[in-house]
C-alpha cells in the first residue's frame, strides 16, 4: 500500500505542511493570549493594541492554513481512492477464472463499496494524521518548554498515559471489525439474491418469508456493527476521562507555580491553551492507533485481492485456429472430482458439430476448457500445430466467438452492446444485428437506442440475439454456442441456427432441444455423458446405433 502514498506524495506533503502551519498559528494564538493578559495586567494600552493586531493576523492565517490543508487532504483521499478502486477492479478482471472463483461476487462488491471507505478513513488518512498529531504535540511541547520546563515535563509524563488504551482494546476491536466485514459480505449476498430473484419472489408470493429472512440479516449486521462501535466507544470514553484528569493535574501544577511566583497569570492562560495542542494530539493518536488496528483485517483483504494472480498471457500469436485437436483431456474443478474423462476429438475446418447430453454431462465445461478459461487440465489441446498452452489467450479469443447461455448486457447504446466498445463500422454492426434476427428491432429503435441497467428494457430473446450479433460481428473462424438460442421462440431459434449453419465458420453448438431436421445438418454429433464422449457420428449413424442418442432424442425433442 505504500506505493499509493508515494504516488500522491505532492498532495500528501502539501496537506501535512499546511496542517503544521495551522498548528504553528494555533500555538502563536496561545502566545498571543499570554501577551494580551500580561499587557492587561500591566495596563499597557499600546502593547494591547499591537497584540490585538497580531491576534487578528494569527486568526486569519489559522483559517487560511486550515482550509488549504483540508483541501489537499481531500485531494489526496480522492486520488488514492480512485487508484485503489481502479487497481482492485483491474486485479479482479485480470485474474484467471480459478482465482476469480475463490471469492464470491458479493465479496468483491463489498470490498469496492464498503472496505474502501473504511480503508480511506482508518488507513490512508489515519497514518498521515498520526504524523500531523505527533508534530502538533512536539511544537506545542517545545513552546511550553520555552515558557516553563517543569510544565512541559509534567505534560509529557501525564499525556503518555492515554497511549496505553489502544493496546488494551486493539485486539478486541480488530476481531470484531473482522466479524463485521464478513457479515457485510453475507448481507450483500442476501441483497443480490433478492434483486436477482425479484420476479420469482413475486411469482411465488414469498415476500413475507423474504422480509423475515432479511430482518434477521439486517439485525445481525447492526448487532456486529454495534459491537465494534461499542468497543471503540469504550476506548474513547476511557481516553476522554484520562484527558480530563490530565487537565485537572496540569491546572493544579500551573496554579502552584503561579502562587509561588514562578510564572505569570498570562503563562497560566497560555498553558491552558497549549494543553489543547499537547493533550488533544495524544487523544487523537490514541484513537488513530485504535483505528489503524481496526483497519488491519480490511487491509489484508484488499491486499489479497490486489495480489490475485494475473492471468498469464505470454504465449505466441495464433497461426491458425483449425483444426482443433483434443487428446486424452482430463479436468477437475476440485482435486479428486474429475469432471471430464479422457476426451479425444478433432474439429475440422468449416464443419458443424452438435454437442448433446443431459444437464451436468460436462458439455459447457468442455467448451470452457477449450477456451482456455482454466489452466489446470491434463492432456493436450492443439490449435493447428500449436499447443493451447503456448498461445496467447487474447489471440485465441480473437479466433473463437463464444456465445454464453447467460447473456450479459451493458448500460449503454445498442451499438456499444454489440461492438463492446471496439471499433466497427455502423454498417457491419447493422448486418450482424440483421443476421441475428434483430432487423425489425433495429429499424424501430436504431443503433443509438439506450439499453437500461442489466437490459431491463429488453426481453430475454432480445438479449440473446444481441449476444449472437456480437459473435456474427467478429466473424471468427470458430463459433461456440452454449445453448445460445434457449431463450428464443422455436421459429426464431431455427432461423438463427440456419444462418449459423450456412456460414463457412466451424460451429460447435451445445444443443438444448433436439430436433431431427436441424441435427441432420450437422457433420458430426458428439454425445456427452458423465464427462465423456460416449457416442459420435452423424445423425443417421447414431439413429442406426439405437443407443444413448436415440434415447435423448425421444426425451429432448419436445
Q: Please, what is the average pLDDT?
A: 85
| Terminal residue distance | 58 Å
Q: Which class of secondary structure composition applies to the elements?
A: alpha/beta
Q: Give the count of structural domains.
A: 2
For the largest sheet, list the strands in their spatial order. 6-9-10-3-11-12
Number of strands: 12
What name goes with the CATH superfamily of the largest domain? ABC transporter type 1, transmembrane domain
The radius of gyration is 35 Å
CATH fold name of the largest domain: ABC transporter transmembrane region fold
Beta-strand proportion = 5-15%
What's the tally of helices? 21
CATH architecture of the largest domain: Up-down Bundle
* Share in helix: 55-70%
User: Residue ranges: pLDDT <50 for 5 or more in a row?
Assistant: none
Morphology call: elongated
Main β sheet profile: 6 strands, mixed
| CATH class descriptor name of the largest domain | Mainly Alpha
Describe the structure.
The structure is a single chain. The protein has two domains: 310 residues, ABC transporter transmembrane region fold (Up-down Bundle); 234 residues, P-loop containing nucleotide triphosphate hydrolases (Rossmann fold, 3-Layer(aba) Sandwich). 65% of the residues lie in helices and 12% in strands. The chain is built from 21 helices and twelve strands. A six-stranded mixed β-sheet has the order 6-9-10-3-11-12, with helices on both faces. The protein has a four-stranded antiparallel β-sheet with strand order 2-1-4-5, covered by helices on one side. The protein has a two-stranded antiparallel sheet with strand order 7-8. Strand 9, helix 18 and strand 10 form a beta-alpha-beta unit. The longest helix has 53 residues. The model has no long low-confidence stretch (mean pLDDT 85).
Amino acid at each position: 500500500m505504500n506505493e499509493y502514498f508515494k504516488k500522491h506524495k505532492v498532495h500528501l506533503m502539501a496537506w501535512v505542511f499546511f496542517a503544521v502551519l495551522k498548528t504553528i498559528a494555533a500555538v502563536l494564538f496561545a502566545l498571543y493570549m499570554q501577551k494580551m493578559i500580561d499587557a492587561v495586567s500591566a495596563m499597557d494600552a499600546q502593547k494591547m493594541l499591537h497584540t490585538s493586531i497580531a491576534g487578528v493576523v494569527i486568526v486569519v492565517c489559522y483559517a487560511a492554513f486550515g482550509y488549504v490543508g483540508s483541501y489537499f487532504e481531500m485531494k489526496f483521499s480522492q486520488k488514492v481512492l480512485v487508484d485503489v478502486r481502479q487497481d482492485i477492479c483491474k486485479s479482479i478482471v485480470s485474474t484467471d477464472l480459478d482465482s476469480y472463483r475463490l471469492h464470491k461476487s458479493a465479496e468483491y462488491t463489498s470490498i469496492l463499496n464498503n472496505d474502501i471507505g473504511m480503508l480511506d478513513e482508518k488507513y490512508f488518512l489515519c497514518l498521515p494524521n498520526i504524523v500531523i498529531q505527533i508534530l502538533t504535540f512536539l511544537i506545542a511541547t517545545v513552546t511550553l518548554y520555552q515558557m516553563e520546563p517543569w510544565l512541559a515535563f509534567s505534560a509529557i509524563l501525564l499525556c503518555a498515559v492515554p497511549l496505553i488504551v489502544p493496546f488494551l482494546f486493539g485486539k478486541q476491536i480488530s476481531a470484531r471489525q473482522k466479524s463485521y466485514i464478513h457479515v457485510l459480505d453475507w448481507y450483500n449476498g442476501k441483497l443480490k439474491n433478492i434483486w436477482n430473484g425479484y420476479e420469482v419472489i413475486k411469482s411465488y408470493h414469498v415476500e413475507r418469508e423474504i422480509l423475515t429472512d432479511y430482518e434477521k440479516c439486517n439485525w445481525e449486521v447492526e448487532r456486529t456493527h454495534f459491537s465494534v462501535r461499542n468497543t471503540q466507544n469504550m476506548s474513547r470514553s476511557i481516553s476522554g476521562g484520562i484527558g480530563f484528569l490530565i487537565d485537572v493535574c496540569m491546572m493544579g501544577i500551573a496554579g502552584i507555580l503561579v502562587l509561588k511566583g514562578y510564572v505569570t497569570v498570562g503563562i497560566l492562560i497560555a498553558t491552558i491553551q497549549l494543553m489543547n495542542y499537547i493533550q488533544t494530539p495524544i487523544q487523537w493518536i490514541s484513537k488513530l492507533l485504535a483505528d489503524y488496528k481496526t483497519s488491519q483485517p480490511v487491509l489484508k483483504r484488499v491486499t489479497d485481492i490486489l495480489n490475485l494472480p494475473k492471468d498469464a498471457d505470454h504465449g505466441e500469436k495464433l497461426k491458425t485456429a483449425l483444426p482443433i485437436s483434443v487428446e486424452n483431456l482430463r479436468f477437475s474443478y476440485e482435486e479428486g472430482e474429475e469432471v471430464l474423462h479422457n476426451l479425444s476429438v478433432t474439429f475440422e475446418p468449416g464443419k458443424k458439430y452438435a454437442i448433446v447430453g443431459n444437464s451436468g454431462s460436462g458439455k459447457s465445461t468442455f467448451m470452457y476448457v477449450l477456451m482456455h478459461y482454466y489452466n489446470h487440465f491434463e492432456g493436450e489441446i492443439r490449435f493447428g500445430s500449436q499447443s493451447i498452452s503456448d498461445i496467447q489467450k487474447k489471440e485465441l479469443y480473437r479466433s473463437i466467438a463464444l456465445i454464453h447461455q447467460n447473456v450479459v448486457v451493458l448500460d449503454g447504446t445498442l451499438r456499444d452492446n454489440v461492438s463492446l466498445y471496439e471499433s466497427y463500422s455502423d454498417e457491419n454492426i447493422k448486418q450482424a444485428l440483421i443476421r441475428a434476427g434483430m432487423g425489425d428491432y433495429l429499424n424501430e429503435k436504431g443503433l443509438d437506442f439506450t439499453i437500461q441497467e442489466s437490459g431491463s428494457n429488453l426481453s430475454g430473446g432480445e438479449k440473446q440475439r444481441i449476444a449472437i450479433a456480437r459473435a456474427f460481428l467478429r466473424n471468427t473462424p470458430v463459433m461456440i454456442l452454449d445453448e445460445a438460442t434457449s431463450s428464443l421462440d422455436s421459429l426464431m431459434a431455427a432461423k438463427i441456427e440456419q444462418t449459423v449453419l450456412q456460414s463457412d465458420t466451424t460451429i460447435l453448438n451445445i444443443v438444448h432441444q433436439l430436433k431431427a431436421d436441424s441435427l441432420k445438418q450437422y457433420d458430426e454429433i458428439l454425445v456427452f455423458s458423465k464427462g465423456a464422449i460416449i457416442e459420435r457420428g452423424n445423425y443417421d449413424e447414431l439413429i442406426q446405433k439405437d443407443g444413448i442418442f436415440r434415447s435423448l432424442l425421444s426425451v429432448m425433442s419436445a
